[in-house]
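thread: overnight batch results

M.L. [08:02]
morning all. the overnight job finished for the chain we discussed friday. pasting input first so we're all looking at the same thing
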Amino acid sequence: MIGLVLAAGAGRRLRPYTDTLPKALVPVGPEGDGEATTILDLTLGNFAEIGLTEVAIIVGYRKEAVYERREALEQKYGLKITLIDNDKAEEWNNAYSLWCARDVIAAHDSVILANGDTVHPVSVEKTLLAARGNGQKIILALDAVKQLADEEMKVVADPAKGVQKITKLMDPATATGEYIGVTLIEGAAAAELADALKTTFERDPDLYYEDGYQELVNRGFKVDVAPIGDVKWVEIDNHEDLAKGRDIACQY
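M.L. [08:03]
and the structure it wrote out:
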């Protein structure tokens, strides 16, 4: 099993931090601490805690900052880190970014994917691992507790059939919950996922990888969910989210 982090995004709403850093390296530790814990630190710490020894990181915007820190991160978390360049990180959305990792996904028996802007506890990864074993090929971490609004990546899921719909563009009242940006992908799903992602970004390069999940569902592929319970987490898009992320991160 390998960990995978999507860390190619620019995060322009987090300037001035992201003038020189990718979003995944924005500090969520105490403000003013030059060595503060970053979003990427938290994710790598989670991966190490569940016993992973290898991680691949998709980089793009300000990728040199990740390259500079790779050796230190490897030593800190006991991980072998492979960096994969996304050459269209500032032009296209993350359906293409995840497709860039297709060979990594295909080469391993399973992958835990985490968005590079999600602050969450290791209980999320543990929930996904515990949900394995019944033939699932892709399992999404789902927050079925949070009150939803327009911006969230909403999911409609059927207990027997799995995900029926995943999009931001739905009435929050109709959703089962929110996909939090962490997925367990079995290697057996690699080829079908890669093809669905390619179809998605070729249709519109501004689409999300979650639109690739929807493409799979439309083809009859079962995508499962695992509810994470009442867990504190946040997707960091702006400075308000960052303040929440710092509050949450200090509790782990």
